[in-house]
Design brief:
Distance between the termini of chain B: 52 Å
Strand order of the largest sheet of chain A: 1-4
Largest sheet of chain A: 2 strands, antiparallel
Radius of gyration of chain B: 22 Å
Largest interface: A-B, 42 and 42 residues
Number of strands of chain A: 4
Strand order of the largest sheet of chain B: 2-1-10-5-6
Number of helices of chain A: 11
Largest sheet of chain B: 5 strands, mixed
Helix content of chain A: 55-70%
Number of strands of chain B: 10
Shape of chain B: elongated
CATH topology of one domain in chain B: Sulfite Oxidase, Chain A, domain 2
CATH architecture of one domain in chain B: Alpha-Beta Complex
Distance between the termini of chain A: 33 Å
Strand content of chain A: 5-15%
Helix content of chain B: 25-40%
Radius of gyration of chain A: 22 Å
Oligomer: heterodimer
Order of helices and strands of chain A: HEHEEHHHHHHHHEH
CATH class of one domain in chain B: Alpha Beta
Number of helices of chain B: 7
Chain lengths: 258, 252
């Protein structure tokens, strides 16, 4: 409401650029809370992994059993033989406290975002690819534009292209839920009440390994996401996610037309 | 304009008052139903309280997963070193015949048990998963007397809220709430995989709490104290773990 009032009042004030409402307040607030939680979960998650940088499949795994794969990093426990001549300091205490606290904030924020998005049409309008958007032609056009490093056009300053839509949808509806699911599947208490949470993965160690792999996918997503924000114009795009308004240069709009 | 902002202010005030009293009621209810952990203060208190409270609502009576004998891990990893103290070595040299478990605090009949005495009580065995907070795990058969049986012998008072347990290693002590203390799978464990509990795994006596991570299953147990408050035990945070920066509740 506030956004549309602001935009209509501005039409005459800025002759060379158009300010267009871009992100709702709910999207902006939940985005930054999630970003903060992601950093906390990543840092604490790395610290927890360092205490045992070996991964297994099935129900069990320890230093006396073969691993699925080992990370080539030093460990914070002397019991893990890493090939390094030193042991890192133990950081698991605060890391575990922080991990679960940040997870709670992320889950509650995500719930708010998801429920609101379902009711106010955010997913339908902004994220589900439109009919023509999912065509092979449109997808290859967007991929070709990315490969040619073609700057984002006016349409993309106003809404998401099909690749963005698919990426965001898979993060929101596949990777985040899988992260939470594999997280609680590692809990001996939670699985005592809901054993199927862990048995569908084939065991507690499988859940841990999937939790790690999904976290890598999320890190990859965030790196590409930040890369694309820089490419599309860091200041403008970041301001859009803070104030809710994007600047669209009129010249760019004319070029698009031509 | 002024009307609008006054109305807004009034609504916001009402919402804030409602929220605050809602929180106060929620806190009182949570305390009444034992959903607040002893380490609920500090920076990470909110997350710890949410985790513990939610788990207690979901898992008060649930049983830890049990496994078939074929899934027992051939190579259970014994973490840490056995106690190096002279008194432990002496007890070990005597085959732990002089090992004693003292039970005191809010009980009708404080008592001391020998291992032979504990073995005479009904024994239970379970094949459960032991997962360390570091990430590794194994499955073993654990044999012992249910803690609830020993607590029934000494007669716990109705006000009891926690059972505190102490290791022969001075800096290892912990506590569980009554949901875990009275849980049928919480065992005073003296056997493992068909034999005596090896010293590396906490022999002669370890408290197994299979719905929580490994560090709650404290080794070399010599004393149990039943209490209605954690004040006066260390820094009052429920166990030695929070004093080292680790959470009291380890269900995840």
């Amino acid at each position: 409401m506030a956004d549309s009032a602001w935009v209509s009042g501005l039409g005459s004030a800025a002759p060379t650029t158009t300010h267009t409402p871009r992100h709702t307040a709910l999207v902006r607030v939940t985005h930054w809370i999630t970003a903060l939680c992601f950093v906390a979960l990543l840092v604490s998650g790395v610290e927890i992994v360092i205490s045992h940088p070996r991964f297994y499949w099935g129900e069990v795994g320890n230093v006396l059993t073969p691993s699925l794969f080992d990370l080539p990093i030093p460990a914070s426990r002397p019991s893990v033989l890493t090939g390094y001549g030193f042991v890192l300091p133990d950081q698991n205490g605060w890391s575990r406290y922080l991990h679960f606290q940040a997870a709670w904030v992320a889950v509650l924020t995500g719930l708010l975002y998801a429920v609101a998005g379902l009711f106010n049409g955010h997913f339908r309008k902004n994220l589900v690819p439109e009919g023509a958007g999912l065509s092979r032609r449109e997808i290859s056009r967007v991929i070709a534009n990315h490969l040619r490093f073609k700057p984002a056009g006016e349409a993309e300053a106003r809404s998401y292209n099909v690749l963005q839509r698919l990426a965001y949808l898979s993060v929101i509806f596949v990777l985040f839920p899988l992260m939470i699911w594999t997280g609680v599947a590692m809990s001996p208490a939670f699985t005592s009440a809901f054993p199927a949470t862990v048995t569908v993965f084939g065991g507690q160690q499988s859940a841990r390994t999937i939790h790690f792999i999904v976290s890598l996918s999320l890190v990859l997503f965030v790196l590409v996401h930040i890369g694309m924000v820089c490419f599309a114009g860091f200041t403008n795009r970041t301001r859009a996610m803070i104030t809710g308004r994007a600047d669209i240069p009129e010249t760019a709009a004319h070029k698009e037309d031509a | 304009m002024t009307n609008l902002s006054r109305r807004k202010l009034f609504t916001a005030g009402l919402a804030a008052a409602g929220g605050a009293s809602g929180l106060a009621v929620a806190a009182a209810l949570a305390d009444r139903y034992g959903l607040i952990p002893p380490d609920h203060g500090g920076l990470y208190g909110p997350g710890e309280t949410l985790t513990y409270g939610t788990h207690r609502l979901l898992t008060r009576h649930s049983l830890a997963r049990e496994f078939p004998r074929s899934q027992i891990t051939k190579t259970p990893f014994a973490n840490g070193k056995p106690p190096q103290s002279e008194d432990f070595k002496l007890l070990q040299a005597g085959g732990f015949a002089d090992w004693r478990l003292t039970v005191d605090g809010m009980v009708a009949r404080p008592a001391t048990f020998s291992l032979a005495g504990l073995r005479r009580y009904p024994s239970r065995s379970q094949i459960t998963h032991l997962a360390c907070e570091e990430g590794w795990s194994f499955i073993a058969e654990w044999i012992g007397v249910p803690l609830i049986h020993v607590l029934d012998m000494v007669g716990i008072l109705p006000r009891a809220k926690y059972v505190v347990y102490f290791s022969i290693q001075r800096d290892w002590w912990d506590s569980v709430d009554m949901a875990d203390a009275l849980h049928p799978q919480t065992l005073l464990t003296y056997g493992m995989n068909g034999g005596d509990l090896p010293v590396g795994h906490g022999g002669p006596l370890r408290l197994r709490v299979p719905r929580q991570l490994g560090y709650k299953s404290v080794k070399y147990i010599t004393r149990l104290t039943v209490t209605d408050t954690m004040k006066g035990f260390g820094k009052g945070l429920g166990s030695a773990a929070p004093e080292e920066g680790y959470s009291w509740y380890a269900g995840i």
